Amino acid sequence: MASNRSSDSIPFLCSCLLLLLLSCLSVSEAQGTPAIAKGLSLTFFDTSCPKLESIVRKQLEKDFKADIGQAAGLLRLHFHDCFVQGCDASVLLDGSASGPGEQDAPPNLSLRAKAFEIIDNIHRQVHKRCGAIVSCADIVALTARDAIVLSGGPDYKVPLGRRDGQTFATRNATLANLPPPFANASSILSSLAKKKLDATDTVALSGAHTIGKAHCSSFTSRLYPQDATMDQTFAKDLKNICPQNASVDGTTDQDIRTPNVFDNKYYVDLMNRQGLFTSDQDLYTDSRTRGIVTSFAVNQTLFFEKFVIAMLKMGQMDVVTGTNGEIRANCSARNSGSTLLSSVVDVAEEFELSNL
Ligand code: HEM
Ligand SMILES: *[C@@H]1O[C@H](CO)[C@@H](O)[C@H](O)[C@H]1NC(C)=O
Ligand SMILES: *[C@@H]1O[C@H](CO)[C@@H](O)[C@H](O)[C@H]1NC(C)=O
Ligand SMILES: *[C@@H]1O[C@H](CO)[C@@H](O)[C@H](O)[C@H]1NC(C)=O
Ligand SMILES: *[C@@H]1O[C@H](CO)[C@@H](O)[C@H](O)[C@H]1NC(C)=O
Ligand SMILES: *[C@@H]1O[C@H](CO)[C@@H](O)[C@H](O)[C@H]1NC(C)=O
Ligand SMILES: *[C@@H]1O[C@H](CO)[C@@H](O)[C@H](O)[C@H]1NC(C)=O
């Protein structure tokens, strides 16, 4: 009797679990929310550093009140971090091809110096409050999220628990992983596909150009000679800002409609042939991405939804977790002797084992 019942209940239990699994799968597929990477969690610092997110938010409210342009700087920093050997804060290392000490990285990456200072200041406050348990990589991810929110964009929970990498981002890795602004949609799509980002992710992430500024050197090749896909008035205005062979590299807003607001106007710009870079405008020219651009231009809710999904994917690329990497004491430098120390420990352990 008892064995009968249990053998009956096993397939019953199994089919229940299967149904549950299937419904879970279809729900997450419908929302498209990416899975949380192994080692990261939404509650990582809930007990060990409950004030973490409010420290970050409060400081950024002050920083952006002084200069809202810094929001763009921080968002771009997270992108550069994640695309070059994963979100491991290698972008912050003095000695990386985009780090604060690098003045002539090819391409001149023009990351804002102030963004590095903002990260350092928050990192200092967090470590003072909670001890050295929060990585620079997590702080970069949180500041990017808050940059979006405080500029009017969507809010989302950031999976935390990243650790800081110990290897520099080389010039070659930087060049190979960050697509240039003169790339067309084909090459942007294939470059991001290598990072498991699809066409929707690519169009959504490019929407980060709804805030921030760009230097003339990033787009003058579209002015002299003038790119046929560019709106005439827009081109004329850009030529005034960026004269040919100018000795100073001027800057301009990336989104002419609402330069400091995180909204869907970037896509409206593209539909009006007012995209700044080839990598922007070609998303509207290319038939594979044109429909996505239009759908975001007419529906900001849809853009926000897809942008959050893409940011969650980007923010978890090749993360360092667990006991790998380290928690840097200074975001610009690896903890001194850390690799040396661990190899000393390894040697000591081997020594003891061989003496047993
Ligand atoms: C898809 C390929 C991308 C290309 C080719 C690209 C290229 C560029 C270039 C050339 C600049 C201007 C740099 C300058 O002239 O000073 C820029 C600025 C910016 N990018 Fe991108 N980007 C891409 C994707 C992204 C992504 C995925 C994000 C974030 C999610 C992002 C966020 C930003 C922001 C916020 C700025 C303004 C920075 C500031 O004002 O300091 N970009 N991008
Ligand atoms: C980029 O070039 C500008 C102007 O030439 C310079 O002021 C800045 O320090 C450079 N930044 C980087 C990261 O190379
Ligand atoms: C970097 O790339 C250049 C050109 O592609 C190549 O000649 C050089 O050997 C590379 N350097 C390293 C350290 O991989
Ligand atoms: C896009 O750029 C790549 C690399 O420069 C080039 O080979 C390709 O022909 C271009 N595609 C289109 C459709 O222009
Ligand atoms: C800019 O420089 C190019 C190449 O050096 C030259 O051919 C051109 O005449 C210059 N244009 C102007 C407007 O000075
Ligand atoms: C806009 O997108 C949202 C989110 O996907 C969707 O729920 C809504 O129905 C769309 N609105 C219109 C008018 O299509
Ligand atoms: C952090 O590291 C950088 C690079 O080694 C160094 O210049 C800076 O002084 C350090 N900051 C502190 C507060 O120790």
Automatic annotation (TrEMBL):
<keyword id="KW-0575">Peroxidase</keyword>
<protein>
    <recommendedName>
        <fullName>Peroxidase</fullName>
        <ecNumber>1.11.1.7</ecNumber>
    </recommendedName>
</protein>
<comment type="similarity">
    <text>Belongs to the peroxidase family. Classical plant (class III) peroxidase subfamily.</text>
</comment>
<feature type="disulfide bond">
    <location>
        <begin position="136"/>
        <end position="331"/>
    </location>
</feature>
<dbReference type="InterPro" id="IPR019794">
    <property type="entry name" value="Peroxidases_AS"/>
</dbReference>
<comment type="similarity">
    <text>Belongs to the peroxidase family. Ascorbate peroxidase subfamily.</text>
</comment>
<keyword id="KW-0408">Iron</keyword>
<dbReference type="GO" id="GO:0005576">
    <property type="term" value="C:extracellular region"/>
</dbReference>
<dbReference type="InterPro" id="IPR019793">
    <property type="entry name" value="Peroxidases_heam-ligand_BS"/>
</dbReference>
<feature type="disulfide bond">
    <location>
        <begin position="216"/>
        <end position="242"/>
    </location>
</feature>
<keyword id="KW-0964">Secreted</keyword>
<keyword id="KW-0376">Hydrogen peroxide</keyword>
<dbReference type="InterPro" id="IPR033905">
    <property type="entry name" value="Secretory_peroxidase"/>
</dbReference>
<keyword id="KW-0106">Calcium</keyword>
<feature type="binding site">
    <location>
        <position position="263"/>
    </location>
    <ligand>
        <name>Ca(2+) 2</name>
    </ligand>
</feature>
<feature type="binding site" description="axial binding residue">
    <location>
        <position position="209"/>
    </location>
    <ligand>
        <name>heme b</name>
    </ligand>
</feature>
<feature type="signal peptide">
    <location>
        <begin position="1"/>
        <end position="30"/>
    </location>
</feature>
<keyword id="KW-0560">Oxidoreductase</keyword>
<feature type="binding site">
    <location>
        <position position="86"/>
    </location>
    <ligand>
        <name>Ca(2+) 1</name>
    </ligand>
</feature>
<feature type="site" description="Transition state stabilizer">
    <location>
        <position position="76"/>
    </location>
</feature>
<feature type="binding site">
    <location>
        <position position="84"/>
    </location>
    <ligand>
        <name>Ca(2+) 1</name>
    </ligand>
</feature>
<feature type="binding site">
    <location>
        <position position="210"/>
    </location>
    <ligand>
        <name>Ca(2+) 2</name>
    </ligand>
</feature>
<feature type="binding site">
    <location>
        <position position="258"/>
    </location>
    <ligand>
        <name>Ca(2+) 2</name>
    </ligand>
</feature>
<feature type="binding site">
    <location>
        <position position="90"/>
    </location>
    <ligand>
        <name>Ca(2+) 1</name>
    </ligand>
</feature>
<feature type="binding site">
    <location>
        <position position="102"/>
    </location>
    <ligand>
        <name>Ca(2+) 1</name>
    </ligand>
</feature>
<feature type="binding site">
    <location>
        <position position="88"/>
    </location>
    <ligand>
        <name>Ca(2+) 1</name>
    </ligand>
</feature>
<feature type="binding site">
    <location>
        <position position="179"/>
    </location>
    <ligand>
        <name>substrate</name>
    </ligand>
</feature>
<keyword id="KW-0479">Metal-binding</keyword>
<dbReference type="GO" id="GO:0006979">
    <property type="term" value="P:response to oxidative stress"/>
</dbReference>
<feature type="binding site">
    <location>
        <position position="255"/>
    </location>
    <ligand>
        <name>Ca(2+) 2</name>
    </ligand>
</feature>
<dbReference type="InterPro" id="IPR010255">
    <property type="entry name" value="Haem_peroxidase_sf"/>
</dbReference>
<keyword id="KW-1015">Disulfide bond</keyword>
<comment type="function">
    <text>Removal of H(2)O(2), oxidation of toxic reductants, biosynthesis and degradation of lignin, suberization, auxin catabolism, response to environmental stresses such as wounding, pathogen attack and oxidative stress. These functions might be dependent on each isozyme/isoform in each plant tissue.</text>
</comment>
<dbReference type="GO" id="GO:0020037">
    <property type="term" value="F:heme binding"/>
</dbReference>
<keyword id="KW-0325">Glycoprotein</keyword>
<keyword id="KW-0349">Heme</keyword>
<dbReference type="GO" id="GO:0046872">
    <property type="term" value="F:metal ion binding"/>
</dbReference>
<feature type="disulfide bond">
    <location>
        <begin position="82"/>
        <end position="87"/>
    </location>
</feature>
<dbReference type="GO" id="GO:0042744">
    <property type="term" value="P:hydrogen peroxide catabolic process"/>
</dbReference>
<keyword id="KW-0732">Signal</keyword>
<feature type="binding site">
    <location>
        <position position="81"/>
    </location>
    <ligand>
        <name>Ca(2+) 1</name>
    </ligand>
</feature>
<feature type="active site" description="Proton acceptor">
    <location>
        <position position="80"/>
    </location>
</feature>
